[in-house]
Design brief:
Layout: E1 8-14, H1 18-33, E2 37-43, H2 48-59, E3 63-68, H3 73-86, H4 96-99, E4 100-106, H5 108-114, E5 123-129, E6 135-143, E7 146-151, H6 158-161, E8 172-177, E9 185-189, E10 192-196, H7 198-210, E11 212-217, H8 235-241, E12 247-253, H9 256-259, E13 263-264, E14 270-279, H10 297-319, H11 326-330, H12 336-346, H13 359-388, H14 399-404, E15 409-411, H15 417-423, H16 428-443, H17 452-461, E16 464-469, E17 483-499, H18 506-518, H19 552-586
Parallel strand pairs: 1-2, 1-3, 3-4, 4-5, 8-11, 8-12, 15-16
Antiparallel strand pairs: 5-6, 6-7, 9-10, 12-17, 13-17, 14-16, 14-17
Length: 587
Amino acid sequence: MEVLKWEEMTVIYNDGDTSMDLFIDDLLEMLDTLNIRIMIYKMEVANLITSLYQIHKAQFPNIQILYITTDNPETESHVMKTVNDFDFNSNRTTDFRVKSKWLLLTFPVVIKALDEILTGLCHVTVIHHSVDGCLGVNTRVKKENRNFWTPVPNFSRVQDIFPNVKFHFNGRRLLIGSLPYQLIRKKVINDTLVYSGWMVDFLEDMAADLNFTYEITEPKDGSWGVKGDHNSWDGLIGQVMRREIDILYSEYLITAERNQIMDFILPPLATSSICIVYRNTGEEEETWSSLLKPLNTTVYIMLFVSFILLSFLYITTETFPLLDLALEQNREYPKSWQICFGLLGCLFLQAGHIHPRTSKGRYLYASWLIFCVVFAAVYTANLTSSLLVKKPKIPFTSLGELVEQKTWGYGLLKNSALQGMLEYSTDEEYRKAWKGIVRQNKTDPSVLPDEIDDLWYKVMNEKFALIAISAIKHTIPQNDCQLSVIDRIVTAQHSSFAVPLNSPLKNDLERYMIRRLDTGLNLDLFDLKQSESCSSPNPYGKVQAFSIDNIKGSFAILGIGLLLSFIGLLLENSLKFRKRLNQHDSE
């Protein structure tokens, strides 16, 4: 007991004679000196199941039992067989197999009877009188899928008494419920169903760490889980509610409603956002306004305000000099409109015909000229970049813009958490998006399909946008330059896998997740880095030869200038012709 360092334990014994009661009293007195909290059960076959449930509820996950037997192997065999098979009949609510440690104070004849019974219990050690009258200790060891008894030579460590502790789940087979989506994919290879993807790799690592094997099963209806009448669910969620599977392992968003019917494993497997995925159609941005695109609207407004303010100050200082010499004041001074045109010409690096007559004017003019040189350099660089590099036309930049436009369709996976988020949201933008999907679904059911592959087909072959969890971008091949992602429409959406309510597996799975975080393996799927650039040829971001399309905005300005000049010429000729007619009439 000093080696085990148990703080609490359960003592169970079979009903015997007076000597058994005296032995129990002496044992309890000894355990009391070790400050061990004791629960005592006199084992009765009629109440065996109830007693085991009580013990499990009181001590889980550290179920530590001292079982004092008699020399009746039939009773002990019945009790231990019931314990061995208990988890198979408890509908995944107990875990005596891994979480209970048994010390059996028994007789050699009982050990032989237990040899074929203890197929599930991992931690069993027997203390018995050997043939020569000495005290013997044997422990149950599992090696190469075989269980056998082995003597315990010393008691210096817990692993000496219960050697299977280091094997965690001891190769236990778990039933995993799952459906392929973004991070779990499936395909048939040589008539064998094979699962792959990031979450499958993660499951393999978890199985190796906790030492369990698994079998993946899918719901017969192929549904993720839809709520029906009387709070019933179908699909994967229905399976975990009915405790038909050990782990629901797929990309499930954690919602308040789901958290009431199953236990999510925390910390979450992923923290992601809502994104929009669409295919680049090859359309390019309109270039009629290419001359204006190097600068945004705010810059043009500030430039106009600066020009007006500087023109006013310059004209004022030059027209009403106070401290300048009379020679400067008497110098011939151009008209205000000529000054404005001269200052405007500085923006196009056409300075030189303005001659300030005051020192204040020279300061203003010099600062304005330096500003114009820098401005022209920045504008020229951005203009060159915008003309030489093709830019794809971005049809929308947010969920609101996607909903408002009429050219692109959009949809999402049916019966997903994302559907519930949009359908029952109080946000007007999300509700509009859901109404739009419902409206499209009346004529085109493929916008709200049961299979993600149907949505991918529409994305790749139509003007269609997929609304999904941002983890989907990590499933896009790095050399697939056709697809674009608008990320983080809604942030901080947690997703994880789950177990049935009050599952005994929850503590171990959550400790594993915490260990993964402590070792620096970030589970945030935003940190699954992929190359931002395409490895296949990409027409966007590549320098192209000049074409008429690139500079048609410049030709438009030239055309406007020619048109205005032509109109001015017509007006001048009309006025001149009219003047001649008037002169002819007067003669």
